[in-house]
Specification:
This is GntR family transcriptional regulator. Keywords: DNA-binding, Transcription, Transcription regulation. InterPro entries: GntR_C, TF_FadR/GntR_C, Tscrpt_reg_HTH_GntR, WH-like_DNA-bd_sf, WH_DNA-bd_sf. It comes from Halomonas dongshanensis. By secondary structure, the chain is mainly alpha-helical. It folds into two domains: 9-72, Orthogonal Bundle (Arc Repressor Mutant, subunit A), CATH 1.10.10; 75-209, GntR ligand-binding domain-like (Four Helix Bundle (Hemerythrin (Met), subunit A), Up-down Bundle). It has ten helices and four strands; from the N terminus they run H-H-H-E-E-E-H-H-H-H-H-H-H-E. It has helices at 9-22, 34-41, 45-57, 76-100, 103-122, 125-142, 146-158, 160-163, 170-188, 192-205, and strands at 61-64, 68-71, 74-75, 216-217. It has a two-stranded antiparallel ribbon. A two-stranded parallel sheet has the order 3-4. Strand 1 and strand 2 (68-71) form a beta hairpin. Helix 5 runs antiparallel to helix 9 (170-188).
Length: 227
Amino acid sequence: MTKILQRNLYREVADRVGDLIEHGELAPGERISEKQLCERFGVSRTPLREALKVLAAEGLIELLPNRGARVVKLTVKKIKDTYDLMAALEGLSGELACQRISDTELSAIRALHDRMMGYYQERDLAAYFKANRQIHESILAASDNEVLQEMYSNLSQRVKRVRYSKKMTEKFWAHAVKDHEAMITALEQRDSHRLGQILRDHLCNKLDLATLEGVVAFDDEPEAANS
């Protein structure tokens, strides 16, 4: 991995460490080695520690008093609580988008949806996830509510490992695609009530992924004795 040379070093480092967490290179519950990351990114401990504070605020890691930091191990309850709030925000974003979306924005979302459907047919999961994310982000943007978008983005970071896990079943994938087709129809009809409900249900359905091995812990799972 290339060394980091940009300004705003701590934010760039935070993004890089976040990527390691998202892709499983830093596993849930794993202690973070400051020495190894400093060497990997070619930075000093100061920007790394600032980056860890950012990631702690975003819910990706937890800071341990006098013992460094470790990757958060999500629990089913924590994911459910987060999804409940995200579903409410995403539903609201759909309702607002139906009222405020421009024809240009709507055409762009339709094009993204068609592209995503092609990736689904090709079973290109990585490309599908990218287009999927862009669709949801575009609907959020069309809501024209910056506070909503900021709150949603912060919550989304906390459960990104679950939302975009590569361990998705064919049945779940087909159901998600059906939801997306209904979303586009409701958006094109400017049916705010329908789109809001679809978005709420669509996100809550993703809780089926919350018990993926290695991604979350059961609520009563004990912490390691010396953690």
